[in-house]
């Protein structure tokens, strides 16, 4: 079985059922059937062959999520080519580097803006022969540029995933809303391949800024996201509650308490009592109905990946009747190593290994994996491959973790992120950071302290919550920098840190912090496209602020 043969099975089996859905600018969602998808994939693959694409040739893809992305990817595979997906946010120089490194013969771009990036570096890429553009181009196409529709009109000649399909539990009755970049392997597998070989429908969000609106329009049954979305939803819910009356706050906290009791019973494999079920029904109507309606009202479960999901966030949503299933893997492992399943899950873990995948913990705590999911190697880099795959075929993930008594994998941190204090103590920053961002006053945080006596933190506060608190406590809020330096605000943040780290060891306590007046962002190259913080970039950028937190050090 190949990806193409599995897609062709879906096309034959599901025919007129919707496969994809997109929303034209100013319009409403429109469906593309499995039959139409198959015809487009077939036409595009033949067009690629007509352009001279042969087995093993690389075809780059620079586009936002849209139907043409899916058609191009499957069309490349059917033509025997290798897809080279790129994040749509890359600069022209970054695009040029990937094109040269991969030796791409063709690049497909979505818009005139993306076309400009490629045009700017085209002369630097000797292997590049053709640019295919999805959006219509006004006037005559420049030399070496061809429209997507024109490629489809040309007359050319021309296993591992099944385990993930069984775990993710997607069928032809499901509808997914896709908004994470399809160039990222998490979305490409879970939000592209798995649903389309399962007969499900994939609807593309208009942008990352319209996800909430599109969720209500599409009413997905399953949705993949990174933890940042769930954290943002959680923070907004709490902020709305805090702005309500004392009665509404009491009802909300009662509802969460009831939901938590139900969740606890389910996690222990027990059936909630009749009284608890009655209370849950009331809580659903009074407290959680709006939250479920905001997701479209049909959600079976969320899937979380790309970064660590705080256990408290998963527990909160489950108390509200929404299950978040966390998985784990890397690009080099196709990507799933382990995953929680609707019928087998444990919060605080990333699930059990998928069928056919071996996992073991090395002596230093690093997670190793072996199996058909592991890559063949890094392109054109045997030395880099040898550094991560040993002679017995074990891939070194770079993550630190354990396997518990029930076989669930638990990640504690990235090996390279471990902070070694000057006293030799090793600190995993991720659990501490995950706990602290649960504070309503802390939005983002990076721990520092390598080779220092103790930990310190760069903190981006929740500006709205902090301003509201400051106003209630007669602290001037006109200037953020000035407000951050007030004794009242510093004491507030210090109290939040102390109260939330009571279960951590003395050497894991955050002794000092600096408040920053702007969020870490992708635009500033401080976050990845899947919204993970770039720790090294941030630490280097705020080096001066970090040094000020350690005045006693030379």
UniProtKB/TrEMBL annotation:
GO cellular component, one term: membrane
Enzyme Commission (EC) number: 6.2.1.3
MF term (GO), any: long-chain fatty acid-CoA ligase activity
Annotated InterPro entries: AMP-dep_synth/lig_dom, ANL_N_sf
Ranges for domain AMP-dependent synthetase/ligase: 7-135, 169-379
Top-level division of the source organism's lineage: Eukaryota
Top EC class, one word: ligase
Pfam families attached to this UniProt entry: AMP-binding (PF00501), AMP-binding_C_3 (PF23562)
Keywords assigned by UniProt, alphabetized: ATP-binding, Fatty acid metabolism, Ligase, Lipid metabolism, Nucleotide-binding
PANTHER family the record matches: AMP-BINDING DOMAIN-CONTAINING PROTEIN-RELATED (PTHR43272:SF33), LONG-CHAIN-FATTY-ACID--COA LIGASE (PTHR43272)
Protein name per UniProt: long-chain-fatty-acid--CoA ligase
């Amino acid at each position: 079985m190949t990806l193409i043969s599995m897609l062709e099975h879906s096309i034959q089996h599901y025919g007129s059922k919707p496969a994809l859905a997109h929303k034209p600018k100013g319009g409403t969602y429109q469906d593309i059937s499995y039959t139409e998808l198959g015809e487009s994939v077939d036409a595009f693959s033949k067009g690629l062959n007509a352009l001279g694409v042969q087995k093993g040739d690389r075809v780059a893809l620079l586009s936002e999520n849209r139907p043409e992305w899916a058609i191009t990817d499957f069309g490349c595979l059917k033509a025997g080519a290798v897809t080279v997906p790129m994040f749509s946010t890359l600069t022209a120089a970054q695009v040029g580097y990937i094109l040269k490194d991969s030796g791409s013969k063709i690049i497909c771009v979505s818009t005139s803006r993306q076309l400009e990036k490629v045009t700017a570096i085209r002369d630097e890429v000797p292997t590049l022969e053709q640019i295919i553009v999805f959006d219509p181009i006004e006037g005559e196409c420049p030399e070496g540029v061809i429209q997507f529709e024109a490629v489809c009109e040309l007359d050319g000649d021309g296993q591992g995933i099944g385990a993930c399909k069984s775990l993710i539990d997607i069928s032809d009755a499901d509808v997914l809303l896709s908004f994470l970049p399809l160039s990222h392997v998490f979305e490409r597998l879970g939000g592209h391949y798995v649903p389309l070989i399962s007969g499900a429908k994939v609807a593309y969000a208009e942008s990352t800024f319209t996800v909430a609106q599109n969720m209500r329009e599409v009413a997905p049954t399953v949705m993949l996201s990174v933890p940042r979305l769930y954290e943002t939803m959680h923070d907004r819910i709490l902020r709305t509650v805090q702005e309500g009356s004392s009665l509404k706050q009491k009802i909300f906290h009662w509802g969460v308490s009831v939901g938590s009791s139900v969740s606890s019973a389910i996690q222990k494999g027990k059936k909630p009592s009749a009284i608890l079920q009655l209370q849950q029904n009331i809580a659903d109507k009074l407290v959680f109905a709006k939250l479920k309606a905001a997701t479209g009202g049909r959600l079976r479960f969320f899937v979380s990946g790309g970064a660590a999901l705080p256990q408290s966030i998963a527990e909160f949503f489950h108390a509200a009747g929404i299950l978040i299933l966390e998985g784990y893997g890397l690009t080099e492992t196709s990507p799933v190593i382990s995953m929680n399943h609707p019928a087998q899950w444990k919060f605080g873990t990333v699930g059990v290994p998928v069928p056919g995948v071996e996992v073991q913990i090395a002596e230093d705590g690093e997670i190793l994996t072996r199996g058909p999911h592991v890559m063949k190697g890094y392109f054109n880099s045997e030395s880099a491959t040898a550094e991560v795959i040993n002679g017995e075929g074990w891939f070194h993930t770079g993550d630190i973790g354990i396997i518990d008594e029930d076989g669930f994998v638990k990640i504690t941190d990235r090996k390279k992120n471990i902070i070694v204090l000057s006293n030799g103590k090793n600190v995993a920053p991720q659990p501490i950071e995950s706990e602290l961002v649960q504070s309503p006053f802390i939005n983002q945080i990076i721990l520092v302290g390598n080779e220092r006596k103790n930990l310190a933190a760069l903190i981006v506060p929740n500006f709205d919550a902090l301003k509201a608190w400051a106003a209630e406590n007669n602290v001037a809020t006109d200037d953020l920098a000035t407000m951050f330096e007030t004794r009242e605000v510093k004491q507030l943040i210090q109290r939040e840190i102390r109260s939330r780290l009571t279960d951590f060891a003395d050497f894991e306590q955050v002794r000092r912090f600096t408040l920053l007046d702007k969020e870490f962002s992708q635009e500033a190259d401080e976050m990845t496209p899947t919204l993970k913080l770039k720790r090294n970039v941030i630490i280097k950028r705020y080096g001066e602020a970090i040094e000020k937190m350690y005045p006693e050090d030379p």
